[in-house]
TrEMBL record:
Similarity annotation: Belongs to the WD repeat peroxin-7 family.
Lineage, broadest ranks: Eukaryota, Viridiplantae, Streptophyta, Embryophyta, Tracheophyta
Naturally occurring in which organism (per UniProt): Ensete ventricosum (Abyssinian banana)
UniProt WD repeat ranges: 105-136, 147-189, 234-276, 277-313
CDD domains, per database record: WD40
Database matches in SUPFAM superfamilies: WD40 repeat-like (SSF50978)
The keyword Repeat is annotated on this UniProt entry: yes
Record-linked InterPro entries: PEX7, WD40/YVTN_repeat-like_dom_sf, WD40_PAC1, WD40_repeat_CS, WD40_repeat_dom_sf, WD40_rpt
Official protein name in the record: Peroxin-7
GO cellular component: cytosol; peroxisomal matrix
The entry's keywords: Cytoplasm, Peroxisome, Protein transport, Repeat, Transport, WD repeat
GO biological process, one term: protein import into peroxisome matrix
SMART domains documented for this protein: WD40 (SM00320)
Amino acid sequence: MAAIRILTPYKGSAVRFSRFDAFRLLVSTRDRYASSLGLHVLQVFPTPSGGNIINEVATFDSDEGVNDCCWSESHHSLAVSGLTDGTVKLWDTSLPPASQPVSIFREHCDQVRSVDWNPAVNYFLSASNDAKIKLWIPGRDNSYYTFEGHTDKVNAVAWNAIQPHVFASVSNDRTVGLWDVRDNRSLTRISDYHPFGIVSCNWNKHSEFLVATASGRSIDVWDIRTTLVPLVDFISHDRFVSRICFSPHWANMLLSCSLDNTVRTWDIQAQALIARYDLHHDAVYGIDMSVHIEDLIASTGRDKLVHIWRVSP
């Protein structure tokens, strides 16, 4: 697939590929001055000339900004979002906008920073500035469980792809939390020595023991069996990192984006830069890699652009 982009009316905060449709994406926006707050479903279509274009096929408006979003891993049309007003909203993208959202959850008392759907079981997590993490089951009116232990804003949560009962959380308290939902307990706490809060985390898709975190301009990779020091620690960007993501296809490849307007890919074993992409002209907040198409990346940011391209043409 050749690189393609779409100029949107909104500033993106997150982008996610669908597990069920290789050419469908979900984009969220949180900009208070945007003309269309909420969720946007984009579809890649082939052109008669053999290329591709991106069109927006559905828009689901919200009164408040959306910090994060993700597709369901269990149902092709469901998606969840975390909003700046502290609500968690569940959407069915197969229904018309007038029927949306299908559920609103109001238990958090501050902004919801992150959401993540479990890869094996039909439930999802939300993480908030109120220092709490909640587990939700679609169809229930209230959360199934609340995980407490962080002492400051929880910026991100991520399920372990190989051990789906385990998840990681990262916080402004400069710790990484590891949790087990089988008995709703904290497995361990990793203390990060960087001076800034930790903003993003993601598990390696090929090892149940490796989790990456981002704090300031630094990226760390931890082996959860030995957590005194990270296995990998390097300065990755010229300004703060906003999100990281492991490749679903390559065990050593990590993707990052930053307030320095760039997206970069890394070989974590060599601690070396693979490629730098200067596609955006403002801060990049959302990145994802397709599980269907090897090396296919999507990004979105404050410049209102959504890019889709291949690492290796």
